[in-house]
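To fix ideas, we reproduce below a protein record of this kind.
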Amino acid sequence: MSTTTRDALPGRFWHKVTIPENTAGCWEWTGTGNGKGYGQFWWGGRMRLAHRISYEALVSPIPDGMVIDHRCRTRGCVNPAHLEPVTNRENVLRGDLPSASAARQMSKTHCPKGHPYNAENTQHRADGARACRQCNRDRVKARYWAKKAVAGTPNTTPAVDAAHTNEASR
């Protein structure tokens, strides 16, 4: 790290940061935390998040409406190379919390088998999840025919009946 970089923030900030020999790694905040894994630092007359201070002092001001995303997924990291301003939505979608998973699921337009998630084909479950009606119909039909096959009941689907009729007429 250059002397200019170090000069952008006071020494009391740097005393709370552990920088590995390979400066490309996470710069771990060792000072006060907020209980959620983010570092805190008294700056500008108030307590602020350390990663935001690092980004603003070493890179540029954070644009209005943007939040800082830790690309390294380490909340205590203050390395500006690991920090990126993004919208709150993008930050949630990149995250690994259940809300992020739910948001990613809701942004999907088709089920894994390719059926559309639209008003006619989407079932909304009590837990908030979506289910594909066509996949459900296919699953129920497959289970029905599998049970019939196990029970020894002949398969009487229209296509099979037509084949049996053709064989019987020979």
